[in-house]
Amino acid sequence: MPEPHHRFLRACLSLPTDRVPIWIMRQAGRYLPEYLAVRKQAGDFLSLCKNPELASQVTLQPIDRFGLDAAILFSDILVVPEAMGMGLSFGTGEGPILEHPIRSAGDVDRLIVPDPTRELDYVMQTIRTIRTALADRVPLIGFSGSPWTLATYMVEGGSSKNFSRIKGMLYDRPEVLQALLDRLVSAVTDYLNAQIRHGVQAVQIFDTWGGVLGHDEFLKFSLESMCQIVAGLDRIGPDGARVPVILFAKGCGAHLERMAESGCDVVGLDWTTALGQARVRAAGRVALQGNLDPSVLYASPERIRREVERVLTAYGAHPGHVFNLGHGIAPDCDPQKVAGLVAAVQEFSFGGAHR
Ligand code: 1CP
Q1: How far away, in angstroms, is 266 Cα from ligand 1 center?
Q2: If you average pLDDT over residues 297-305, what whole number do you get?
Q3: Which residues are marked as active site?
Q4: 296-308 burial: b if 16+ Cβ within 10 Å, else e
Q5: What are the residue boundaries of the structural domains of the chain, listed by start?
Q6: Is 77 in the pocket of ligand 1 (CB under 6 A)?
């Protein structure tokens, strides 16, 4: 199989690169004035997600502005529960609202497993539009939420602080939660395979809320379903290239070894894990992505540069590092700071022939 030439794809596959690639979780979004202008044009956030032309425009905005090494599809993890039949809305300034929360086995039975080329066809159109607009400048990343993370929104009915309803379900009626997770494994596997068929060149599974689970509960109720998805993915794209799979589970650095055995190519880490030790623990089985604390972007440009150097030095001169924040960029971030961050990654990691 031919080796990829893009440094992001090469790093995902632990191949040598000219320098460390960088992309940023939530790189398109509210901290960019040009994003807010396009969202206004679309009317609201969900309409923006469903408009392939405008969603493609906002996907490319951070690429044009900062010269990042990968683009990520502009969409949201919650379009999958919507396609399964749950009503979805985003109130202005509030979190998401899922209209018919899952509270019983009957609620799970009523969920459909969507045909991604029908209920989620607008995402497939967006992928095609973005690939044309990118013209192979950088690779395109597709994504989904993990079954556990999607289930938190579906059971709670929106964002949550203490996850009381889904935790109650986990301990009292684990069979209902398991039935929901099983249905989500099918929906997410079909959805990511459709994204791959339509042209995404890597996929990331976001397990934003894996870290709220106890040790054994994470393995049983989150990692297990992610492993099933990884096993069901088509790892070769329509152009014959390998499609790397990234698992990002926030607050789950303790489970790195188990995640590295999932069959994924890259494990994404948040900033609570020591990156140098993580590389040793991963033992060459996977590449690592991360892991600058997003709050570093509130510091001075000089301090940001020092912290970038610290992350790069912690990983060291080895292949298989994708620079990223440890979680999504904050909506009140100053775009100038992001420009400084990208420049620092480019400068400090350039010329490492060993990478
Ligand atoms: O007002 C707005 O413009 C909406 C804000 C917004 C944006 C820009 C939401 C609402 N989602 C998004 C885009 C988005 N969401 C992307 C775009 C691609 C990118 O540039 O990265 C991605 C990958 C996501 C994924 C997503 N949505 C996650 C997982 C990643 C993470 O940050 O942890 C989660 C948990 C969501 C749910 C979500 N979407 C939006 C909100 C307000 C929420 C709830 C967050 C919460 O519960 O705290």
Answers
A1: 21
A2: 98
A3: 26, 30, 39, 76, 153
A4: bbeeeeeebbebb
A5: 7-352
A6: yes
